[in-house]
């Protein structure tokens, strides 16, 4: 790992990145490209661009790099001749799994399963993890409704032409500010920015408000707890409306921290009550840990912070887990073959890498590392927000999964740009938040570099 | 590659596979598992199971292995130290592409682009390729409707709660028997088996009938061409109904050969007319080449057999292409960043492998190989259907992408089982079809082995 960031061009993206971006623009819209990366040269917490710049990476490919770049354990696994066939031959996992598949599921995924969940399906990305979790919920609900009866003629015929009763009008409840993917099903539960959804047909599914807190939390306990109650009452209300309208809400999906939506947090108490309401109403409780899962909050799963009596019904994952998938309670297991199915159902090559990640996380106790580094980081952010209260506020976070808000989007974007020029690669989220998404190997020494550069930017801005 | 198949257990799956299947069954439904595979030992057109059996593979992981197992060119690419970082660091491609990304798109994907299509997006599987193709069509249609006007307040507000006008009621037309994926959007265009769709909410999108031909084709020219016309008239009719109902059909999606639905073929003339109707009506013409693309029909893209004047608007791919994605005309390129977007947008590690595949296909002229092997194969199947006309019929195919029908599902399933015991791993599709899906390296010598074993099965059955 390099000793620190180093910027050699006078603009980011530099000339080589700009040229490549132009070339890519001839094939596809390349407006979202930040720079082109030299992945060979990138190491640990440092990402190197094609123009010779080295950035401390506190964004990590939208939070999807568990151990940073080119971790030796991963390089070794890829070069291990025993793993060669796994990289060369991607199987149709549901039909022809490899000899070590059961063992891989145990080592890579069940060894870190959320408390209480022992059933598991692998998928290939966050969107299909959520899409298939929703499908499992629909099947569970309708199985309950049929109560042992086989599907009848009318159901089997209508389903082929997208009609009720075979395709029932079931609904999922999601939160304003939530992000669960961009395929048609998950997009109907995503409510981040209009441009994510505009022009795309949606299921007419309801949306509840997610708590909006006043910070610092300790000074607004009463208001924030009233906010929780208002939002919980709305959830109950929408569930009851759904039953009355004949569009029953069969599942509720929520992120432990609304990430794309602006790093919106809610209290552990709020989530415990959500779990209680869903249990009471017979609604499946789906926790989307695509961005929070895998350690960045200081626990392997962010929902472990809540101390639930009754685990979530389904926990979905992807990103830092390298493979997609979901854990679920026994009741959500489809009875028939081929009901939750697709060609690949994930990729054992990603399981090989995940196995190594889990080994390193355990051996090096990276969850403790993240808790320590995270508390230093948050303390620093809180000091800054006191000093620069005209510019930034709402410093918040768990582990290194931290964020702060700027007065407006323009100020946030200026800060991101200024950080770039000081060798920090960071990301935005929501309308005016800066979000920090580190690898699990991010240490106090990295925190110090980050805080130093951020303070320079804030002092200048 | 082994000299031929070899079966050493008295049952398939053998004892080791059965034990592993039981163990997997404790974690997830494992009923669809056929056997557990030793991917280290499998070679070329031969797949080896954990019990020591070796099968000639004419199914190839649901048609997703372009060069068979452990092809030396792929093994070499995985071991190449220059590629190590690509396997170790999966980027967020839309934001931080690798230095060689433009070059990879050119070498791996544009060098085999369907005639007339020069724009391209990568995705990670067939479902998200189709989901995002549909989204690109919706954006294209609404951009046209807004005719330069910026989205208004009402659109930007309603879209956040899944309502019109922001989420407009646009529809896609698909065919009975078509399969385009199992996520919520694509599932509304999939019409194969009731269990694929049962219990899952669907968009109320229409379905047209796909031609059903009488075989052998040369004896039923008039009936089959009448069948074409009936189906085309229905398509026009449904498009007109959509406009009248305020649920305009904005795209039509079709497979060149309906694969999961039973290997249903339609004439080149039928597809040319579909293209004409969609052009006339302003409906996007999406050709789903997820299963047919990449060479198995003897052309790189199956729709090249049609000799269209006007290319499809969108061609989607996955499986044999190792990466998902879609090619499209310039008009379907989203104008704004982040509209067609997700974390990974594919995987450059798959592009490395695809580059090698394309090199081998070109160097060894594997398309010609498939055309030659395929014509031998189809000739053989046609001879069998004459000899066993009480049992099998409708032998059909293009390249080695061949199929035949049995009198019923039970007879088909018995044949698949008997073939297994003779060392042939083959698949079913539709209700009573046997489908052949070879690697591109399948040669006349393999055809002869397959036909020999099939003839034994037919003679016994
Ligand atoms: S939808 Fe997840 S990989 Fe395609």
Automatic annotation (TrEMBL), chains A, B:
It comes from Limulus polyphemus. SUPFAM superfamilies: PLP-dependent transferases. Transmembrane segments: none annotated. Its cofactor is pyridoxal 5'-phosphate. Belongs to the class-III pyridoxal-phosphate-dependent aminotransferase family. This is (S)-3-amino-2-methylpropionate transaminase. Its EC number is 2.6.1.19, 2.6.1.22. Gene3D superfamilies: Aspartate Aminotransferase, domain 1, Type I PLP-dependent aspartate aminotransferase-like (Major domain). Pfam families: Aminotran_3 (PF00202). Keywords: Aminotransferase, Pyridoxal phosphate, Transferase. The keyword Iron-sulfur does not apply. The keyword Lipid metabolism does not apply. It is an enzyme of class 2 (transferase). It comes from the Eukaryota. InterPro entries: 4NH2But_aminotransferase_euk, Aminotrans_3, PyrdxlP-dep_Trfase, PyrdxlP-dep_Trfase_major, PyrdxlP-dep_Trfase_small.
């Amino acid at each position: 790992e390099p000793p620190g960031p180093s910027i050699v061009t006078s603009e980011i993206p530099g000339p080589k990145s700009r040229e490549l971006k132009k070339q890519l623009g001839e094939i596809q819209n390349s407006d979202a490209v930040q720079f082109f990366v030299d992945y060979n040269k990138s190491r640990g917490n440092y990402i190197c661009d094609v123009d010779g710049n080295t950035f401390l990476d506190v964004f990590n490919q939208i939070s999807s790099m568990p151990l940073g770049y080119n971790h030796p354990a991963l390089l070794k696994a890829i070069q291990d001749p025993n793993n060669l066939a796994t990289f060369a031959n991607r199987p149709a996992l549901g039909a022809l799994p490899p000899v070590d598949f059961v063992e891989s599921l145990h080592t890579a995924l069940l060894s870190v399963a959320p408390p209480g969940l022992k059933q598991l399906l692998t998928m290939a990305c966050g969107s299909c993890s959520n899409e298939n979790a929703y499908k499992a919920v629909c099947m569970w609900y309708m199985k309950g409704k049929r109560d042992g009866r086989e599907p009848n003629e009318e159901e089997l015929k209508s389903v082929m032409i997208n009609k009720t009763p075979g395709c029932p009008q079931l609904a999922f409840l999601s939160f304003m500010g939530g992000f669960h993917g961009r395929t048609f099903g998950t997009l109907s539960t995503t409510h981040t920015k209009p441009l994510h959804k505009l022009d795309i047909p949606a299921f007419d599914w309801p949306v509840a408000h997610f708590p909006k807190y006043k910070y610092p939390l300790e000074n607004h306990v009463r208001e924030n707890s009233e906010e929780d109650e208002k939002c919980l009452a709305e959830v109950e209300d929408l569930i009851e409306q759904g039953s009355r309208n004949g569009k029953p809400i069969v599942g509720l999906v929520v992120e432990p921290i609304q990430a794309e939506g602006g790093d919106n947090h809610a209290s552990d108490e709020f989530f415990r009550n959500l779990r209680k309401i869903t249990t009471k109403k017979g609604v499946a409780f789906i926790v989307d840990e695509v961005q929070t899962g895998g350690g960045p909050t200081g626990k392997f799963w962010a929902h472990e912070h809540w101390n639930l009596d009754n685990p979530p019904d389904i926990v979905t994952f992807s990103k830092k887990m390298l493979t997609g998938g979901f854990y679920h309670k026994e009741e959500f297991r489809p009875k028939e073959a081929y009901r939750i199915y697709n060609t690949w159902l994930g990729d054992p090559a990603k399981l090989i890498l995940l196995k190594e990640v889990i080994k390193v996380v355990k051996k090096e106790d990276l969850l403790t590392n993240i808790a320590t580094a995270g508390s230093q980081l948050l303390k620093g952010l809180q000091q800054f927000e006191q000093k620069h209260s005209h510019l930034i506020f709402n410093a918040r976070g768990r582990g290194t999964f931290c964020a702060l808000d700027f007065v407006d989007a323009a100020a946030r974007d200026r800060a991101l740009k200024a950080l770039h020029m000081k060798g920090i690669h960071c990301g935005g989220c929501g309308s005016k938040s800066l979000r920090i998404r580190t690898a699990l190997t991010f240490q106090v020494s990295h925190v110090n570099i980050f805080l130093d550069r951020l303070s320079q930017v804030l002092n200048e801005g």
